């Protein structure tokens, strides 16, 4: 190992309990954290059209997320949103809920603070798509998924749609189950 390819994580999908857990703050930015971040980027770039990935999505309960919206790989540790404003509607998707896109309203602009890989304080002011990404990835670090942000009726519909997307019927047994893989 150590080559550029083949260093990816498996992306956990809805049904995997790790997606519902609270991630712990990163206290030491050691080689292990660097390695995790590298591997998260590999996983993001290997994914089909992913622009953001949070550590719990690859089974790691640490407050880390990576994103790339403009051919610029970016990472933040221990992020928090300190200000948000407005409303913006967007058809939101998630690599852990593949194939499902749901129109969701969230704040339009946010100010996010956190720490970079050198331990320096960083902050990002963002709006629209990037602001949405920050809110979405931060939710992952708190074990929150898109479903949790939906109104009961919308959640019911989205769940039904996701079951349609993922249901597997064994040709012999005829058993329908949710794929958590
Ligand atoms: C989070 O989402 C996000 O369903 C990142 O089949 C959400 O990268 C950023 C993806 C909303 C901005 C706005 C989803 C790829 C990627 C899928 C993603 C799929 C393939 C989602
Ligand atoms: Co997601």
Q: Topology, pairings included?
A:
Layout: H1 31-46, E1 52-54, E2 64-67, E3 74-85, E4 88-92, E5 102-106, E6 109-115, E7 121-127, H2 128-141, H3 152-166, E8 168-169, E9 176-177
Antiparallel strand pairs: 1-2, 2-3, 3-6, 4-5, 6-7, 8-9
The structure holds 2-phenylethyl (2E)-3-(3,4-dihydroxyphenyl)prop-2-enoate and cobalt (II) ion.
2-phenylethyl (2E)-3-(3,4-dihydroxyphenyl)prop-2-enoate (QAP) binds next to strand 4 and helix 2.
Characteristics of this structure?
binds 2-phenylethyl (2E)-3-(3,4-dihydroxyphenyl)prop-2-enoate, binds cobalt (II) ion, Peptide Deformylase, 181 residues, five-stranded antiparallel β-sheet, 9 strands
Can you walk through the features of this model?
- The structure is a single chain.
- The protein is an alpha+beta fold.
- It has a single domain (17-167), classed as Peptide Deformylase (Alpha-Beta Complex).
- Helices cover 25% and strands 26% of the residues.
- It contains 3 helices and 9 strands, in the order αβββββββααββ.
- A 5-stranded antiparallel sheet has the order 1-2-3-6-7. It has a two-stranded antiparallel ribbon with strand order 4-5. It has a two-stranded antiparallel sheet with strand order 8-9.
- The longest helix is centred in the N-terminal third of the chain and has 16 residues, at 31-46.
- It starts with 30 loop residues before the first helix and ends with a strand.
- Bound molecules: 2-phenylethyl (2E)-3-(3,4-dihydroxyphenyl)prop-2-enoate (QAP) and cobalt (II) ion.
- The site of cobalt (II) ion has 5 residues, from α2.
């Amino acid at each position: 190992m150590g080559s550029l390819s083949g260093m990816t994580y498996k992306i956990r999908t809805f049904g995997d309990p790790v997606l519902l857990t609270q991630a712990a703050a990163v206290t030491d930015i050691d080689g292990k954290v660097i390695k995790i971040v590298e591997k998260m980027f590999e996983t993001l770039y290997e994914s089909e059209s992913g622009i953001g990935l949070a550590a719990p999505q690859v089974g790691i309960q640490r407050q880390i997320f990576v994103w790339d919206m403009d051919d610029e790989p970016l990472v933040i540790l221990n992020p928090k949103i300190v200000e948000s404003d407005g409303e913006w509607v967007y058809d939101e998707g998630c690599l852990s809920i593949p194939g499902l896109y749901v129109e969701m309203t969230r704040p339009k602009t946010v100010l996010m603070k956190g720490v970079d890989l050198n331990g320096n304080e960083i902050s990002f002011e963002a709006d629209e798509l990037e602001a949405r990404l920050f809110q979405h990835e931060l939710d992952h670090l708190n074990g929150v998924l898109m479903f949790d942000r939906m109104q009961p009726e919308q959640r019911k519909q989205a769940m039904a749609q996701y079951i349609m997307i993922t249901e597997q019927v064994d040709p012999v047994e005829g058993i329908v189950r949710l794929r958590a893989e």
